[in-house]
UniProtKB/TrEMBL annotation:
The lineage of its organism: Bacteria, Pseudomonadati, Pseudomonadota, Alphaproteobacteria, Geminicoccales. This is GDP-L-fucose synthase. Belongs to the NAD(P)-dependent epimerase/dehydratase family. Fucose synthase subfamily. The keyword Oxidoreductase applies. It comes from the Bacteria. It comes from Benzoatithermus flavus. Its EC number is 1.1.1.271. Transmembrane segments: none annotated. It holds the Pfam family Epimerase. Keywords: Isomerase, Multifunctional enzyme, NADP, Oxidoreductase. It catalyses: GDP-beta-L-fucose + NADP(+) = GDP-4-dehydro-alpha-D-rhamnose + NADPH + H(+). The keyword Oxidoreductase applies. It is an enzyme of class 1 (oxidoreductase).
């Protein structure tokens, strides 16, 4: 549990690993409001899968705080297509960063996991202690196994060495900087892109994977970034902390919301031959709520902002050159 002591970020050198991703970019936006010295490294500067390179970089830069937001991520199709990469690359990234952080004396580390770590048929809402109580969802077990290993590594360093390494489990995220490539994206950016293109082309319908019945919780990435800063300052415990809004919607309801935000007038056609994934995935966020944190961005407001970002940044959005023309 939290020990009641507040960690002071002021004046610290904070390394955000994965700063060019959606989560990392949101962390930079949030941390820019804090009196900290931000440290980053692009892929050209540092390959996080190479142990010797990470150790040398960390020894030279000497960050005092590390946030592990770097990961290979993707939706159901990507996880199913590249299981080796999802397991191998994520294991390498987190092992290299966590071990190097300990070796250079990092004062506090926050490891970001994922709600997909929990068993496929967890009781709902999902409490943190449901971890490892049942089989994983097969469509993303490779990514989930890697994230579980990262959580356990943080706990091991805390148990054996007293390291101040904590972990947070975000629910499904969306927002500015998301990946809109249909081959690798998650459900929100995929729906935004599909409906935008259908609207532009005057298509009569849009296909949506699955039955539309699974329920999912969605958190805006800027809310996650705020929760990360909050946890760095307020949480000191070996147990992971769920980060979400505590409310969920069906995929059908989500698709209808996206359709309304985009302004698409056509029909939604659900394809039951495509995988639904886990039937429901709603996090129990009582641990974080008890500490005093709440999200600020509602789903419809967040979707509208995401679509606005999409329209303004289509040429630069991954996998989307020219799609808003």
């Amino acid at each position: 549990m939290a020990d009641g002591k507040r960690f002071d970020l002021a004046g610290k050198r904070v390394f955000v690993a994965g700063h060019r991703g959606m989560v990392g970019a949101a962390l930079l936006r949030r941390l820019s409001r804090e009196p900290v010295a931000l440290v980053t490294a692009s892929r050209d500067e540092l390959d996080l899968t190479r142990q010797a390179d990470v150790e040398a970089w960390m020894a030279a830069q000497r960050p005092q705080v590390v946030i592990v937001a770097a990961a290979k991520v993707g939706g159901i199709l990507a996880n199913d297509t590249w299981p080796v990469e999802f397991l191998e690359q994520n294991l390498l990234i987190e092992l290299n960063l966590i071990r190097s952080a300990f070796r250079v004396g990092v004062e506090k580390l926050l490891f970001l996991g994922s709600s997909c770590i929990y068993p496929k048929h967890s009781p709902q809402p999902i409490k943190e202690d449901y971890l490892l109580t049942g089989p994983l969802e097969p469509t993303n077990e490779w990514y989930a196994l890697a994230k579980i290993a990262g959580i356990k590594l943080c706990q091991a360093y805390r148990k054996q060495h007293g390291a101040e390494f904590i972990s947070a489990m975000p629910t499904n995220l969306y927002g500015p900087g998301d990946n809109f490539d249909l081959a690798t994206s998650h459900v929100v950016p995929a729906l935004v892109r599909k409906m935008h293109e259908a609207k532009r082309e005057g298509a009569a319908s849009v296909a949506v994977w699955g039955t539309g019945s699974p329920r999912r919780e969605f958190l805006h990435v800027d809310d996650l970034a705020d929760a990360c800063v909050f946890l760095l300052e307020r949480w000191s415990g070996s147990e992971p902390v769920n980060v979400g809004c505590g409310e969920d919607v069906t995929i059908r309801e989500l698709a209808e919301l996206v359709r309304a935000v985009v302004g698409y007038q056509g029909e939604l056609v659900f394809d039951p031959t495509k995988p639904d994934g886990t039937p429901r995935k709603l996090l129990d966020v009582s641990r974080l709520a008890a500490l005093g944190w709440r999200p600020r961005i509602g789903l419809r407001e967040g979707l509208a902002g995401t679509y606005a970002w999409f329209l303004a940044n289509a040429a630069a959005a991954r996998g989307l050159a020219g799609a808003a023309a």
